[in-house]
Amino acid sequence: MLIQIILIAMAFVLFVFFIRSSHSVRTQAFKRIGFILFLILNLDAVLRPDDTTWLAHKVGVGRGADLVLYLLVVAFAFFSVNTFLRFRNLERRFTDLARSIALRDAEPPAEVPAPRVPAQTVRENPAEDARETAHDELPTTSLSGGHKR
After folding, report:
1. Residue 74: pLDDT band by 50, 70, 90 thresholds?
2. Domain membership flag for residue 59
3. How many distinct structural domains can be found in the chain?
4. Which of 22, 36, 45, 99 could hold 52 in an S-S bridge, CB 3.0 to 4.6 Å?
C-alpha cells in the first residue's frame, strides 16, 4: 500500500529532523509551518470530505476518515517526541541554573580553631600517672557501643 510507505517515510524523516536539530530557530520555524499546514489540511478535511476521500483512495486507504486518523496518529507521536525533548532541555537548563546559583552563593567554610592541648603538669609521683593512664584506657560499657560521649 502506498499509504504505508508514505507514513513510514514521514515518521522517519520527521523523527530524524526532531532529534538532530531540536533547538535551532530553523527547526522551530519548520515546526510552526508544519503545524499551520496540518491545521489547514484538517479544516479542508472537515469542510470538503469528498476531497479527503479522493486523496485516501489515491494513496490506498478506503475512507478519508481513516486517512485523517493515520495522520493524527503520526502527529500525536511527534507531539510526544517534541514534548519529551522540550522537557529534557528544560530540566537541563534548570540543573545548570541551580548549579550556577549554588556556586555563586557559596560561602567558604568557617575556620576551625586548632584544638587546645592542655598544659601538662609535672607530677611528683610517676606511679600515680601510670594508674590514671591505665584507668583511662579501660573500656566502658554503655548503650553507645563502648564509646565515651
Report:
1. confident
2. yes
3. 1
4. 45
